[in-house]
Amino acid sequence: MSTKYKLLALLTLLVPLSGILALVIGSSDTGIDELWSYMSGQANSFTTTIITLRTQRAIDGFIVGGLLSMAGALLQVLLRNPLAEPYILGISGGAGACTLIALLLGLSSTWTPVTAFAGALVSTLLVFSISFSNGNWTTERLLLTGVVIAAGWSAIISFLLAISKQQQIHGMLFWLMGDLSQASHTVTGFFVLIITFTISWAIARPLNLLVRGQQQAAALGENILQLRMIIFILAAAMTATAVSMAGSIGFVGLIIPHALRLIGFRDYRLLLPATILTGGSFLVLADTLARSLLAPQQVPVGVLTALLGVPLFLLLLQNQYKSR
Fold first, then answer.
1. Tens digit of pLDDT for each residue in 107-123?
2. Which of 101, 126, 138, 200 has the fewest CB atoms within 10 Å around its CB?
3. Does residue 249 form part of some domain?
4. Beta-carbon-side half-sphere exposure of residue 130 (alpha carbons within 13 Å)
5. Is residue 123 part of a domain?
């Protein structure tokens, strides 16, 4: 077995490990004994309620983390830039703003994934069309466009919060900061994760060629325009689903793919499953820390991922300038 497959096996072990930690750690520690009694059906009602809630939250965290990590990996190969990810490019902001609009209009929760997808797709098309207006893009133009689009969505979100009812604002703010305590659409998220991964893995070979450059990929027979559109739609669907489930959680799509490439995962046939395993486990662990750090008060997990992601983003940006 090659080293990469061994690493992938180790990453697989992160999933049950992060899940167990999520179940036993919190404002009320349950311990292995209580967990075993729950699994054997002998736990009391209090323990059963706690572990059931934590199990649902861990599942949601894994799905959201996997979706955001894959979206980041796809955007990075499309742009051939490790700085690309849904939050920085304003895609999460578009999904979040359109979801809030739907909520304020009184639409049912079944419309949330649809409106989030529409917002993510609109934001994606805006960023890439403006950045690519003269036939090519640069890191500076892409990041500047993403920042401006994100600022525009932020202004819309601020306006929506300003006209919202007082009793809605607290929940909206937590949701916008990225919060798994009220995550929803778990079944939808699971199916989107499976479907988008299957499609992404099916185009792993074209993605590997695209890493080497669009001209080389086209010379080897790939339809670049079609491949771009597939990546656009996949990244928008992943981001929209993650946002509709748990709000805007930033920098997961930046941290995970970059870290995996550093340890040798460059083939997308291995990188894609590795991003799901690592991104999902990372967000589960981050959420466990977020809800136990200041227990019983909970910190939105998006705050924690931002605290980790901002310095990494600045470090990557500085390294890009030094390498020129």
1. 777 787 888 888 888 88
2. 138
3. yes
4. 18
5. yes
pLDDT confidence tier of residue 124, bands split at 50, 70 and 90:
confident
46-103 pLDDT, tens digit per residue, is 778 888 888 999 999 999 999 999 999 998 888 777 777 888 788 888 888 888 888 7
Q: What is the pLDDT of residues 33-55, one digit of tens each?
A: 777 777 777 777 777 888 888 89
Q: Quick one: tokens of 197?
A: 């991964």
The Cα–Cα gap between 14 and 274 comes to: 11
CA angle 97, 98, 104 (to 5 degrees): 90
Place of tokens 């525009």: 152
Residue 320 amino acid letter: Q
Cα–Cα distance measured from residue 75 to residue 85, given in angstroms and rounded to the nearest whole number: 6
Closest to 304 measured CA to CA, from 318, 319, 292: 292
CA–CA gap between residue 142 and residue 126 (Å, rounded): 11
Domain count, the chain: 1
Residue 43 φ/ψ region, left for φ over 0, alpha for ψ in the -120 to 50 degree band, beta for the rest: beta
- Location of structure tokens 């030094």: 322
Maximum Cα–Cα distance across the chain: 66
Position 324 scores a pLDDT of 55
Q: Looking at the domain assignment, is residue 285 inside a domain?
A: yes
Please give the single-letter amino acid code of residue 194: I
- The residue behind tokens 């901002």 is 310
Judge contact between 99 and 116, C-beta under 8 A. yes
Full residue range of the structural domain in which residue 165 is found = 61-322
Please indicate, yes or no, if residue 17 is contained in any of the structural domains: no
The CATH number of whichever domain residue 97 belongs to comes to 1.10.3470.10
